[in-house]
Design goal:
The chain has ten helices and no strands. It is an all-alpha fold.
Length: 156
Amino acid sequence: MYDDWGMREARALMTKRKRGSEDNFDKIFWEGVAAAMIAYPQMFRVYITKHVENVCPCCGVQDESTGHITRCTDEGRTEMFYESVDILCDFLSETHMDGRLIDCIATYLEHRGEKTMTSITHRMPLFATIAADIDALGWDCLLEGRIPTSLVDLQL
């Protein structure tokens, strides 16, 4: 009962904060989000779940959000972002993910929300469901660690 209430509240909050649509909520691999979060110290988990908007230290934009953090065009932040994508791709390779999918994910991330996953994978029908789910959830959702269950299912 508590878990059901929590999921209803999370769905409502995610929709209210425009982090995704209510229809796509169940496409997210929430067990993975919980497993990743538990590895962090309590105060960091509080920060992530209650991110306070402020000023970007790199470019000075007011009301810095997680969306801005991942799209900031400051040279240093952009370089850090691309390095993070490389680290993620190395990790995905170590988990034996299909190299074609790794390349698609890297391309998707490097376009910073300006290109759909469906457009990147259009010649690879094996990834059609994953691409559609990623596009439905949105770039920010993937960046914030809410991955579609279809991606997890492919890896199993």
